Amino acid sequence: IPGHGPAVNKQQVVALRDKMVAVRERVRALNREKKPMEEIQATLVKEFNWGAGPAGQDRRPKCCVRSGQD
Asked: Distance from CA of residue 9 to its chain's centroid?
């Protein structure tokens, strides 16, 4: 994320934005298919390497799920 690490250039910011748009669209598609939160999380980890990095796999994504689903 720009501002939380080394300096990035415009091309890197565009690449990050494109990845976030792709994540958003994938989550929307999975929500439309009424997939459970666990499957959405697993998909984000698998397809976008979400949750990997310094914090490790313990940081599973917990955003972008249908309201009313806990």
From this structure: 22
